[in-house]
Design brief:
alpha/beta; Aspartate Aminotransferase, domain 2; 3-stranded antiparallel β-sheet; globular
Amino acid sequence: MNIPCGRQSISEKDINAVEVVLESDFLTQGPKVLEFEKKLAKYCGAKYAVAVSHGTAALHLAYTVAGFKAGDEVITTPNTFVATANMVMATGASPIFCDIRSDTYNIDEQKIEKLINKKTKAIVPVHFAGQPCDMAVVKKIARKHNLLIIEDACHALGARYKNIKIGSCKHSDMAVFSFHPVKAITTGEGGTILTNNKKYYEKLLLLRNHGIYKDKTGKNVMVEFGYNYRLTDIQAALGISQLKQLDLFIKKRRQIAEYYRHELKDVSAIIMPAEISGNYSAWHLYVIRVKEAKKREKLKQCLRKNNIGVNFHYPAVYSHPYYRENGYSNVRLKNTEEYQKSCITIPCHTKLTKNNIKYIAKVIKEGLKI
């Protein structure tokens, strides 16, 4: 038995959808991208969606359109994949790391305001593991200080905050998704930016395609410095097909989380992840914490020895050598430090069975010598 930590779920309908495009006139820059964008925007409840080549490109374009520049500061969480902060730096701005909550491992909304100064441009909350941040609080702080909000929602497609779908941009200026194979739906690689702001939408479209638009004569005219961040029609067709299954995928992930809660509820040596009131988590990741941090390595080895995939989400962004060498050598955040020493990500994807969960739980108990 080999149980990967994460994996995609591809059906015959998905394959057929891709085959239709492969036999069509357009492999890229055709009608499927717009169709995917419209269906995704409708699903999330946003006015506009702009599909791009990957989640990192989506972050970069969102930050660029937001006007991040050298001298700006952007408050975000250290508990995220490096792309969240890297793309801030790509614009010339500086990420400012706020400590995390000890329950959801999201940015601690109560600690954001003390980091705001005249240089602060925006807040970038990350819905870690599919669990929404408290966006009403973030929005209140941002509006008080005239700051932008860009949600890194790469983990949270299908999640809801106070019964509002993540991606609706009801509490933000833009929201970003990723469609990497381990995410809720996949296009292979791919991402998107959602917004309710028409000016942002139009500029995102422009910058996605080299800063070029077609004039009235059909001539390509470059008016801004842009990028080739286009999604292909092949990928979009897969995305459309996957989107039809999204609610079922989320239901399965939530069922897996419930199985884990049942199987591991009596294991006192670990801290289980919690879904807080008002949240409907997408359960992109399932992260447990080992109360005695020194046992984490032993547990990891035991799981891998028994062919169970594990991961660590995440080493604090500021702890990476690049960041240590580029201005973040003295950053230490209490909750983040405690979390990153004790966290371990166990399998959570739609291909898992109840028996898989029972087996994983059994190995965890053995690994901790319960």
